[in-house]
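User: For this week's homework, look closely at the record that follows, marking any run of repeated tokens, and judge whether sequence predicts the tokens.
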Amino acid sequence: MGDQDTSIKTTKSVRDRLKALASERHTTMNDLLAELVERELTEEEKEQRAQQALEEIQQTTGVTVSDDARARARTFLQGLGQEHNAA
């Protein structure tokens, strides 16, 4: 059995923007929303990917990344994200 349709309440401005974006991309609002949410990762998925990357680093190089190094890297990346959002 396929997915069943449902409704999402949103503002008219958000709906209109979704409609315009979907039209520009020659797709439906449903397909556009599906594409957008598939692109985003949950916090759990981000943590899983980070853990996989750390395991690959360890297997490939023999280096174990410390918790301190992870925390510094996370702080650095968050700073980059804040700079990007401010621009």
User: Anything to note?
Assistant: The chain has a mean pLDDT of 91. Helices lie at 12-24, 29-39, 43-61, 67-86.
